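Changelog-adjacent note: as of this version, every example in the card shows the full chain rather than a window. The one below runs 481 residues end to end.
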Amino acid sequence: MGRINTNVAALISQHRLGRSQRDLSVTLERLSSGLRINRGADDPAGLIASENLRSEIGGVKQAIDNSQRAINVIATAEGSLNEVAAMLVDIQRLVVQAANSGAMSPDEIKANQLQIDSAIDSITRIANTTTFAGLRLLDGSLDYQTTGVSAADIQSLQIHRANFGTRSAIPVSIEVTQSAQKAGLYFLGAGIASASTIEVKGKDGGVSIVLNASAKASAIMAAVNNQTDVTGVKAEYITASNPASGIIFRSVEYGSDAFVSVKALTGGAFTVKKAPGDATGVEIDEGQDAEATINGHRSVGRGLELSLNTTSLDMTVRLAEAFGTGTTSFAITGGGALFQLGPKVDSNQQVNVGIQSVAASRLGNGVVGYLSQIGTDGDYSLLVDGGARQASLIVKEAIRQVSVLRGRLGSFERNTLQTNVNALNITMENLTSAESSIRDADFAAETANLTRSQILVQAGTSVLSMANSTPQSVLSLLGGR
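Full-length structure tokens:
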């Protein structure tokens, strides 16, 4: 063929060379960027999958940062609580020392009281000044707000965790089906005829009491009540206005942990019963725990204290002594510290934790008193007769409350936050590996493609040159004329 207007061979060579140059360009781009997908045209489906994975990776990275920041917040609060606990232990030591009044002068007791005042002020100051990036941690700012709580039904309420989800408030309904009871034994009669020795035991311990012949009920009751702080058992007339009605021995506390045991060691003339109408005597009786249904969940309490721990609500409530059985309700309207622990913003990946105030006016309870009341101007100062005994009970309760709060925060940090970080790190590794397998370039394969593309471009250039020179053979035909 001697056509020169259309050089088919050159067109074919040019087409092949263009493809080789594009392949070489793509390979060079991948090797220079390290990515297999640099634009949507490289792999549309792979780009979609990669972008989705990148979005998840970004969320997981931030969730890890959130969890680490939450750990720092909890660690800051727990560090301050450690100092509060140390000061409470010092206050307890000073109270016990001051109770040794036979070996301490009034001036020394006053000095102890001054140290207690200073420690109380320091505890309140720590509560008010412990902050993290401007967020107050221990002054009650992170506690929950409630409405509708009846003081006649509920003595104290602590909400540890509440997940609101999309709700603005969490209604709480408590239906008490079994009331808490103290242990009790009855002694019927106005006194005893012959001398006896009885053993009285309770939750706190036991004592032996010697009763003289013809001891009246009033003498028996006084002897028992003189040892109440040792035994945890208190005596009172069955009918308050009638000493001849007999005596009821009651445990100071409520619940199955509390018990009363009254046994005649000598004399054999002292008999007690569980109820005035019983035909036979007994030696021991136990209290009864409250039972209730809280938002549909059964709760078996400990004395007057009921607890609920579900995925949406963790709380402890102490019923009022006079409440008995029935229903009471209230609502949690806000508060708490909300931590976003997952890559998606929904209630399943959030945790809301409450941190109560540890100011001196909040440590303790309405039964034994509050820490602020053992200050110089308080009702249970060391300078008040009998103040050391009540102060020791208040400090004991304050130490328990701080210890429980520290334990809850420590458990939250270890079992929720730290495990969440570990799980998210594993998720991060897997997501990154999956995204890398889709988007990142395989340098071994791309290097081989580079060599191939370079050879093809060089060969294509050479062939195109040959194809372009082929029409010149026509000149030989013209020359032959």
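Structural remarks: The first helix runs from residue 8 to 33.
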